[in-house]
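for the writeup, i need someone to sanity check this before i put it in the appendix. the sequnce is what the collaborator sent (i think, or maybe the updated version? ugh). structure was predicted straight from it, no edits. if anything looks off just tell me and ill rerun, i have time this weekend
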Amino acid sequence: MDTTGVRKPAHTLAVAHGAFNIVGGLWPLLHLRSFEWVFGPKTDVWLQRTTGGLLASVGAAQLAAAADTQGPAHARRIGLGTALTLLAVDLVYVPKGRIRPTYLLDAAMQTGWIAAWLRSSPARSTGKVRSGRR
């Protein structure tokens, strides 16, 4: 929040992306059957649960970071790293036929998160003002 009590866009983005990651991570943990119905059966359920747990943890870290003054910058780094990793997996393994084409929906979402974080510059995330050219 700024001094007027208005939430900054980077804070809102940290909360939104954190919540998205928590929900996405908890889905296969709480109802693997529906997750597999959408994204295909998994041979290594332990790996799906591990990935889900990590995504939920990432989301929780983003939500916690959003409340801190320097937090949105941390949430941005976490968000970009997570979204880039998931996007790479989607774009490599869908064409190879290892994962279903429905993962391209996830690729679109990850692309959206990346674009949103890139539009939310580090200066905007931390409240610092950049000098020089944009």
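The radius of gyration is 16 Å. The chain has six helices and no strands.
thx in advance!!
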